[in-house]
Amino acid sequence: MSLRVISDPEYKNWISQLSNRYRAAQIKAAVAVNSEMLHFYWELGRDIVDMQSGNKYGSKFFENLSRDLKESIPDAKGFSVKNLYYIRRFYLMYSNLFPHLERKFPEVMGNLANENFPQVMGNLQSPEYLISKIPWGHHRFLIDRFFDEPTPVPFYLKEIVKNSWSQTVLDHMLDTKLHLRQGAAITNFKSQLPDLTSDLAQEITKDPYIFDFTNLTEPYQERELKETLLKNITKFLLELGEGFAFVGQEYKLNVGQTEQFTDLLFYHLKLRCYVVIELKVTKFEPGFLGQLGMYVTAVNHLLKTEQDNPTIGLLVCKTKDDVLAQYSLEGYNLPIDVSQYQLEKFLPENFKSALPSIEEIEAKLKD
Asked: Pseudo-torsion of CA 165, 168, 174, 180, nearest 10°?
């Protein structure tokens, strides 16, 4: 006997609601499982540090611990020697970075399975909350990069949670040293925008922008750079950051009896304003500001509505003299930033020579 198809709209709506509720429950369950696992890892890391004090269990402590845990809990994962080293470092890095968490953190983290916990905590930017929301693989990335100097870690904790970065995206942001680039552009936002808006606008800037996905080599023209960026629009938007929505390339503006074309036009959803991006494949020159300023003014007159905030201009050059850019912007009455771009990842000159060898890594793990 075949089943009768129920076409009642109320019934279909109910099925849709059930589906959405089930997916939401799955997400909550995954978050709760991750929080509980991190809770356990925190306690295990603390215990390892305590048990290792005085080295009373010998140099093979981690090998023995791994074997004994696997025998005691055969169906469990995560007890390899390598992961036990990570668990120890997880506890050490975060307890040193946030000393107030050292002993009470497990009890605080243990409450995260309660969906009302964020309201109880009252601060979604607290380290307890941020650490608990990040998958273990992401923590391992941060430990690899910053265990010896963890100062940038709070920045990445906030960005991971805010933007829901995958491990691949996090790896890219770490490679390009986002914490040194974000908000680093030279701007006149403080003088040209209200305080709250200027702070947020500064945050969306970067210096330099990394266009390593373009695969361009010298020589190339501005049109080639723009076309390559748009062919890789997903990666381009990722580099620009959260909130940018693409409006158009060579966007036509009818100004008087002429037609003017912006390089790239975006709308920023958080700032609620248009953003005009002008690309230059040469060194910054003060005269570039006049052209970009005209585009910004035209967008304010032709596209901006009463609900929109003033348009912002981003001038991205191949290179720039910071002092010249700062002086040029001080006398300008439109909100503009001056940045530069790179076609390769942002690494210090001696980075590769500073990388440890496999032998050095193994020796450090055994230490």
From this structure: -50
Regarding beta strands 258-268 and 244-255, do their DSSP bridges make them parallel or antiparallel, or are they unpaired?
Answer: antiparallel
By C-alpha distance, which of 131, 61, 53 is closest to 90?
131
337 — phi, psi (to 5°)?
-120, 150
Tokens standing for residue 64: 């023995």
Q: Tokens for 199, please give them.
A: 């702070």
pLDDT band, very low/low/confident/very high, at 105 (cuts 50, 70, 90): low
Judge residue 128's burial from the number of C-beta atoms within 10 Å of its C-beta, 0-12 exposed, 13-18 middle, 19 or more buried. Answer: buried
Tens-digit pLDDT profile for residues 12-45 = 676 677 667 767 666 666 667 788 888 888 988 9
Q: Above 90 in pLDDT, residue 311? A: yes
Give the start-end residues of each E strand in 133-221: 186-187, 209-210
The dihedrals phi and psi of 146, each to the nearest 5 degrees, come to -125, 10
Please give the helix or strand (H or E) that residue 250 lies within, else none.
strand 244-255
